[in-house]
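Please, structure for the following, as tokens.
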Amino acid sequence: MNSGNSQASGGPRSGAWRRPESGTSGLERYFATIRERAGLIALVTFVTTLIAAAYLVVATEQYRAEADLLVIPLSRDDDSLQGLSVIHESTDPTRDVATAARLTTSLNVARRVDKEIGYPGTPEQLRSKVSAEPVAASQVVAVVAEADSPEMARDIANGFANGIVSERGDIVKRQADTLITGLRQQLQDSQDSGETTTALEQQIVALEKVKTAGDPTLTVDTLASKPVSPFSPRPMLTLIAGLFGGLILGVGGAFAMSALDPRLRREEQLRELYSLPILARVPKEKRAPTFTLGKRRLVIGPRSRERRALPPGELSAATLESFRTLRTMLAAQRREDGNSRSILVTGPSPSEGKTTTAINLASSLALAGNRVILIEADFRRPTVGEALGVRARVGIGDVLLGNVALEDALVLAPPFGDNLCALLVDRADDWLAEVLSLPAAEALLEDAKRLADYVVLDSPPLTQVIDAMPLARQVDDVVMVVRLGSGNLTQLAHLGDLLEQNSIRPAGFVVVGGPAPEESSYYREAQRRRAAQSDWLVNFEQKTSSSSSSESEAPSKPESSSSSSSERSASSAER
């Protein structure tokens, strides 16, 4: 029984199989996540790069021009221009230049420039096209303008540079004119009274210069020239930004999805949960349709899709090879003791591929010359008979109730002859689970093992229904089938809890849905030699039918029939 074998194979503690063999490093997990979500990362990167390319197509070219203003504040000791709102030297030189920069982009200057260059927008919009910033630790203010044409960018930059000089010049001229009028009256009064007038005369001369030349603290140092190329958009930089931005978003999304995804994505996740071997890797089947259409969810809605069990005749060569590998792994134990063995196939959730695994494991064992009984223990969703193309007159329920002997309920599964028999569920009923008690399960298995070399049981997901747990306690091996991309990690952990609580150590995993192995030249050459032949299973069935027909037509030649039967057995074992 499983409990005894689990102790023998698992050591003194049956729960040791739940400890991981060796943890993977963080770097390995990162690379595994990136490989697993490579499609998502590539898609996000492609989309962001495409958006960047679309931006380059629709974006308007922008040009940038720069003019420079020179700020020369008046000395604090110079009082000749007192009363004028010019920039005087302060304790913080940068504040003087910042004041000039702030005045350069004022709304009054924008209105002046708007009239001069004929800007198509409003002064407020024009003001938003220009910026004035002090240049490092200098007395220079950089006036930078941006526009969709090189001429307009140049005109805006020069317009604001000249505009602030003109604007400040007009203000200072008016102030100087007012001051000069007052000072001349003072000069006249001083001359009449015989007072010294030298200081007043010097101040009037200085103000006259300001009245003529304007603000002496602001001058245009460099006028802007027409830019030869746009500064935006930059094709190479934009595409690189889109590429790297997509990679960052894709990798971040991959790790977020990996952290939130409850599904089994890679074999390393199994090793992190269990210290159990992977008995076989069944590739994703591309030869046969794996789904059937069910009822419509709504009256006009799409039909639901349900996975169907696949018999060996519908599988590819790579898939059949994986089940031969599973047969070899499980048959090793029987070669050691020579006794019949019972194998229960289950999974953590529906649609993992357990029924397909059970059918093809039984078929592979039968083709190797073993007597095999396949027992359908899934009472709620029986599909073994449909997959094998057989129907049962009486089912497992009558056997469990004692109404029918096991030998009378078995159905031959063509084209395997006497090597493969099936005990099916004749009708889906929940009440059948009630009769599957521990004594009944033990008696059923003992009878089956007496008649066959191997007994393979197709069990429902034990995490969904507990019907087959009595059988799981009695079998020699429990095989867990998981499907990459759809298996639920929570359900898988729950299945481990159930088996551990019942002192059951599984034999290992069958991983379904991985990539198909690359074919070597050895197998390609073998396929070319068999290209003119039909499928091996069809040939096997045809040979069996032909031999049966020969026996009925020539009853007087038993030696020939015996020879033909021997040849079929040899052919079966060879295949």
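The first strand starts at residue 63 and ends at 71. The two ends are 31 Å apart (CA to CA).
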